[in-house]
Each structure stands twice: as structure tokens, then as C-alpha cells.
């Protein structure tokens, strides 16, 4: 998370008509963007500074999606952007930095060790999926679907990774894992033509437990729609399932968490058996996407070497697990 002082915060908040004095409250921040919880008078807001890009079209898509979701009736809350002094929903500094202010959604961070929250995650994602399927959007997606991963990251080559390994001994120690991941990346080209035949619609594309808000046992809100795109419908639960592999939990096994989530999701959205059969591949696409995303961030000086090494280890281990786990495949046979 980027450091940001009060003077810089003043620069951002001066674009909005909010009560003064304001203060910054403690809040966890994600990997991709800088976020701050702002208390002003009786209201709380969330300031979000986009670190991944300086492309206003991406935020425009995100905000049109949020506007349409918030105008429809749903039990799941989604972020509401605050209008700035000129009536827009996001702002741009002279250096191109994009930022937006949102009304803060009160609640707690869900627990990946808590079965009701994992099931609630699947239910909320399913409810959102049904809403997104009915949306009529003016804006076109900026991000490519996951199944086009090979084309999206075609600049990540074996030669580039060889160069990184030559520069850093910690990466060189992971040569076998990096070569394995690149083999998987090459195989993804073969999956693409078959996967794109599956049902497609708008999806959130990054629903993980850290992008949600809980109240008691229930998941009440889904956040961070930056990566929304038209993609495979089944990719939504696949992203969650892949992320659950990364979360140590107190359930009887990691299978239980994925099974709880999938059962809850498919009570809201009926997936075809073809979609369920492809879930292991879709999980692998998500894991590869995170790995490649962090490689790009590392090259651009936005992520530390330690994080890249952690992601390499996790991704290689989890893809091997997906390939070899009969228990995991059984979940997607019996879910419907």
C-alpha cells in the first residue's frame, strides 16, 4: 500500500464537497490500489486511488456498472461513487492519476475460517451473477476475458523470465516452478478455443473474500468492480474457488470450503455440466492470471520480490493440486 500524507489527501479531497474537518480512520488496503477510510462529519467515505492504470475508460465502465446495479433491487450492496464538484464520479490529477470517492459500506471483514461466510460468499456471488446477466450496458469492457489470457500476456516470454532469474537469485532458486508455470501458460492457448463456447455475460471477475463485507453471518456487500468484463459465467465462482486454495482455514479440508461456496452459488445460478467440467481449468486460468499480473507489477516496480516469490510458490503448488486432486473434481460433478 502506498504511503500518503495529509497534504496529498487534501489534494484529492479538495475535489469533493465534504464536511471539514475530516480524519483518516484505520482500514486494510488491497494490492492493486491505495485506499483510505475518511470520516467527515457524520459520514464515512472510502477514497480509492487507482495504481494499476491511468485509463479513465476503465473507471467509466466500472461506474456505469455500479450505477445500473445500484438502481436495481438487490439484497447485495455495491459501492456508490460520490459526485465531485463538477458532477463527475471520478477525478484525474495532472500526472494522470485517477481517483474516486465512495460512500463507505459499514460492516466487518469476512473470515475465511468461518463456514457461514464462505457459503455466504457463494450466495452473494450467485445473486450478483444473476443481476449482471440482466444488465444492458452502454460501455464496452476494457479488460479481456480470462480465456484470452495467452493473448493478454503474450509479452511474458520464457526469455523475459530467464532475464529476471538472472537478475535475482531468489527467482533462480524457483527455476523449476517458473518453467512449470510457463508450460501451463502455453497450454492455456489450447484451452481457449473450447472455453469460449461456454455461456458468457458481464462478471465481476475478482470476487474474493477480501472484496466483500459481512454483517454477522451474512455477506452483505461486494466491492472493487475495477476488473469487470464480459467473460465466461462460470469464471465468477472459479475465481472464488481458486482464491480459497490460498486461504488457510479451520474447516475439515480445503475441499469443504470450495464445496460450501459452490453449493451456495449454484442455488442462485444453474451452471451446465459443461461449465462444471471446466471449473478446474478456469481455476488454473485465475491462478495463472494472478501470477502474470504480479510479474508485470514487479517489472514495473509496483510489487516487491518477496510477493512475487510467494505467488510463484503458491501458484505452482495449487496448479499441481488441481491437476492431481480427485476430491476437487468430484465437487464439480455433484454440485448440481
Explain this structure to me?
It contains 13 helices and 9 strands. It is α+β, with helices and mostly antiparallel strands. It folds into 2 domains: 98 residues, Phosphorylase Kinase, domain 1; 220 residues, Aminoglycoside 3'-phosphotransferase, Chain: A, domain 2 (Alpha-Beta Complex), CATH 3.90.1200. The strands form 3 sheets. A 5-stranded antiparallel beta sheet has the order 1-2-3-5-4, with no helix packed on it. A two-stranded antiparallel sheet has the order 6-9. 37% of the residues are buried.
Q: What string, H for helix and E for strand, traces the elements in order?
A: HEEEHEEHHHHHEEEEHHHHHH
How many distinct helices? 13
Quaternary status of these chains?
Answer: single chain
- Number of domains as seen in the coordinates: 2
CATH 2nd-level architecture of the largest domain:
Alpha-Beta Complex
* CATH topology group of the largest domain: Aminoglycoside 3'-phosphotransferase, Chain: A, domain 2
